[in-house]
Design brief:
Layout (H helix, E strand, L loop, with lengths): L3 E2 L6 H4 L4 E7 L4 H16 L3 E7 L4 H6 L7 E6 L2 E7 L4 H9 L1
Parallel strand pairs: 1-3, 2-3
Antiparallel strand pairs: 2-4, 4-5
Length: 102
């Protein structure tokens, strides 16, 4: 499954998903975000049981504010529309997968 680019208009797809959701808050100019992005893409392609989404904080400041994103990259895991895990900073793929499995 590919990564879903989220905006405030289509955010309901993630919030209402029956799957565990990974949100990757990023910006194009952010070096650590560029390190995490290919890992997030791999997770999306290898794990169809998850809904993997990216949110550009420059384009979607309201969503970033709603999730209290203060620095990027920030990864948020949601289940049944509720935040169950959150981390800030670049993480290896194994740690990102562990966040999803908790």
């Amino acid at each position: 499954m590919s990564v879903l680019q989220l905006t405030k208009e289509n955010f309901g797809e993630a919030k209402n998903s029956e799957k565990t959701v990974l949100l990757d808050f990023y910006a194009d100019w952010c070096g650590p975000c560029r390190m995490v992005s290919p890992l997030v893409d791999e997770i999306a392609n290898e794990n169809p049981q998850y809904l993997v989404c990216k949110i550009n904080v420059d384009a979607e400041p309201e969503l970033a504010g709603a999730f209290e994103v203060m620095s990027i990259p920030t990864l948020v895991v949601m289940k049944n529309g509720q935040i169950v895990n959150k981390s800030t900073g670049a993480r290896p793929k194994t740690q990102i997968l562990a966040m999803l499995e908790d």
